[in-house]
């Protein structure tokens, strides 16, 4: 349930940014929000990535 609230809030913020700042700036904000976690994940060592994936699987199983 909390993830749904975050998604709805993100969409609302995106729409407000689109209305206030214009489409180009809003698109750059959205791309930045998506790119930051991806870049952070790619900066991890292979052993850290394995540990992160294992932790995610462990949470799914519990």
Overall description:
With 62 residues, the chain is mainly α. The protein has three helices and no strands. The chain has helices at residues 2-21, 23-42, 46-61.
Q: What is the structure about, briefly put?
A:
The chain is an all-alpha fold and 62 residues long. The chain has helices at 2-21, 23-42, 46-61. Helices cover 90% and strands 0% of the residues.
Radius of gyration: 16 Å
Describe the largest sheet: none
What is the ordering of alpha helices and beta strands?
Answer: HHH
Mean pLDDT score: 84
Q: What is the tally of beta strands? A: 0
> What form results from the Cα inertia axes?
flat
Structural class: mainly alpha
Oligomer: single chain
Q: How much beta, percentage-wise?
A: under 5%
How widely separated are the two ends? Answer: 17 Å
Transmembrane segments: 20-44
Keywords: Membrane, Transmembrane, Transmembrane helix
Write a concise keyword list for the protein shown above.
62 residues, mainly alpha, membrane
Note the topology.
Blueprint: H1 2-21, H2 23-42, H3 46-61
